[in-house]
Every structure is written in structure tokens, then in C-alpha cells.
Specification:
The protein has 3 helices and 13 strands, in the order E-E-E-E-H-E-E-E-E-E-E-E-E-E-H-H. The chain has about 180 residues and is mainly β. The strands form 3 sheets. A 6-stranded antiparallel β-sheet has the order 1-2-10-7-12-5, with no helix packed on it. Strands 9-8-11-6-13 form a 5-stranded antiparallel β-sheet, with no helix packed on it. A two-stranded antiparallel sheet has the order 3-4. It starts with a strand and ends in a 13-residue tail after the last helix.
């Protein structure tokens, strides 16, 4: 697997080896030894999730203050603009973001460590989004940051869609930077 750095050193894009011919393709989506050797990340994954979203659905920016989750994310159908935001107060990159397009065609994955907010925007007609997490979902500790917060300034590719994002009620009401809670590490 090839590791592609982002503007946030802890956030990594992973390009697995894909073996294909006229019959289709094969790729190893996760191998603990290969993942640890390539990334240096030794977290254990405890939960797998799968979501399907329609075009222009924007999910995020989500994180858990207690039981923070590292996420290894990928797309198996469609394409998304995937974003990670450093929400660790002690980090020199606090409030900075990194993004990548993940798609069924490019087979890329993104590693988002604990301490980062995460979100994605569906660019295709729909997308199936799969992710492994390093801790269990804990709704009592879940937090959100507004997807369009000016302090963070994510350059979402909304012009490509020609429409406003489709948000959940929770995401539409997410706090902005001055009112959000962050990681103290």
C-alpha cells in the first residue's frame, strides 16, 4: 500500500494495490501488519460502519470528546469529498483541515486519527461509505462543528454540484468555532 501525506501529518491517504483484469479486480482493503508497517499506526479497530447517502448529502463535522474514534474510511460506490479537521487544542495545526476525494474508482482510503473532526460531501448520485473505528460509538460524547465554520474555512466543492448541501437537523444546528468543544490534548 502506498501512503500519501496530507497537509496534516497525522491524516493519511492510503492507496492499496489493486489487481485487475477484464474479469474485475481484487484488493486487500485491510491488513493489520501492512497498515501498521506503512503508517506506524497501532490502534485496534473495534467497529465497522456502512452508510449510504444521496448526492449533496453532507455529513459532519463529527467527533467524540470521550472515547475519541480514529477512522479508516473508504468508498465502495460513488465518490465523496472527505475532510478531517484537527481539533486538538495543543496541536500546532489546531483548526486546520485536510481533504481528499475518495471513490469506488480510485480505491483510496483515509486515516483520520482520534482528536480530529470528520465529515464528507457526496459528489456522485449516491455513495456507500465504509469505515472502521478505534472506539465504539458513544452518543453521549458525540459532538459536531458546523460544516461551514468560517474559522476552519473548508473549501467544499459545492459549485461542482450546483446545489446546496443536504444536512441532518443535528448538522444544520452544529455549533460554530467559538461555541464548540475541543480536545484538550
Amino acid at each position: 500500500m502506498e501512503v500519501i501525506p496530507t497537509s496534516l501529518p497525522e491524516v493519511l491517504i492510503l492507496q492499496p494495490r489493486v489487481f485487475g483484469d477484464d474479469r474485475g479486480f481484487f484488493m486487500e482493503t485491510f491488513n493489520r501488519r501492512a497498515f501498521e508497517a506503512a503508517t506506524g499506526v497501532t490502534h485496534e479497530f473495534v467497529q465497522d460502519n456502512h452508510s449510504r447517502s444521496a448526492q449533496a448529502v453532507l455529513r459532519g463535522l463529527h467527533y467524540q470528546l470521550k472515547q475519541p474514534q480514529g477512522k479508516l474510511v473508504r468508498v465502495t460506490s460513488g465518490r465523496v469529498f472527505d475532510v478531517a479537521v484537527d481539533l486538538r487544542r495543543a496541536s500546532p495545526r489546531f483548526g486546520q483541515w485536510a481533504a481528499a476525494e475518495l471513490s469506488a474508482e480510485n480505491h483510496r482510503q483515509m486515516w483520520i486519527p482520534p482528536g480530529f473532526g470528520h465529515g464528507f460531501l457526496v459528489l456522485s448520485g449516491s455513495a456507500d461509505f465504509l469505515y472502521k473505528t478505534t472506539d465504539y460509538y458513544a452518543p453521549a460524547h458525540e459532538r459536531s462543528l458546523a460544516w461551514n465554520d468560517e474559522h476552519v474555512g473548508i473549501a467544499w466543492p459545492l459549485a461542482e454540484l450546483g446545489m446546496d448541501p443536504v444536512l441532518s437537523d443535528k448538522d444544520a444546528k452544529a455549533p460554530r468555532w467559538p461555541n464548540a468543544e475541543f480536545f484538550d490534548c
